[in-house]
Amino acid sequence: xxxxxxxxxxYQSRWEFLYTxxxxxxxxxxxxxxxxxxxxLDEASLEAARALEVQPGDAVLDAxxxxxxxxxxxxxxxxxxxxLIANDRSSSRRARLHRVxxxxxxxxxxxxxxxxxxxxxxxxxxxxxxxxRILLDAPCSxxxxxxxxxxxxxxxxxxxxxxxxxxxxxxxxxxxxxVKPGGRIxxxxxxLSPLENDGVMAKLLKKRPGASLLSxxxxxxxxxxxxxxxxxxxxxxxxxxxxxxxxxxKREEP
Length: 254
Ligand SMILES: C[S@@+](CC[C@H](N)C(=O)[O-])C[C@H]1O[C@@H](n2cnc3c(N)ncnc32)[C@H](O)[C@@H]1O
Hints:
The protein has 254 residues and is an alpha/beta fold. The chain is built from 11 helices and 11 strands. A hairpin with a 4-residue loop joins strand 9 and strand 10. The structure holds S-adenosylmethionine.
């Protein structure tokens, strides 16, 4: 099956509009408030980070943090209180993350951040019930990027999204172990493939009775509900996205 056949099957008559919107250059937002200098990112990414609703003093894990746009949001919300673990398994991307934190954050906000390089899918083996908030901005199909790179498009196969969905499930299950009861996880991807979005959430609800989904994130000005979360897609969000956001909590012990 080709890329187009796969997405046509999922998005049906909408695919033509979505495809056209995905081919446009991404709409970048100048995120400046509270930063030493502006950082440019998709506004949909800001919404994913804000959906975590970090409170001053929280212990926060940003499990897949590099290059760090969302980490900046979390650090500003902590304002130099609590703890922020900014983790990414890739050493080259961690180097970029260090530069982003250095260039854009004041010393006070940076003072509570620790950059680590662990495998997010194994986190629960080492820390349980530790974090108030976890952002899991998972590695994903990134179809908008794939469409703009002919070599990647040629290499695409449906097996890729299936493999990523398995990895994403392992990561979100590990985040569930690591979050405190009553704590909050935001699961986000920039994937169009429903397997990596609602598919991962459906599996989590089925296989992990401790997980429960909170209703749609509050106050996001663009996007639309999905079965288990919220998705911002560029054909209906003036070029923003794709960004899927689901908010999960771990049930308190009875
Ligand atoms: C979607 S990107 C994160 C973007 C980032 N949150 C931001 O807003 O700038 C996903 C990241 O996950 C990292 N990654 C992939 N597999 C990982 C794993 N098993 N554990 C931790 N990080 C991983 C990749 O290196 C990549 O930087």
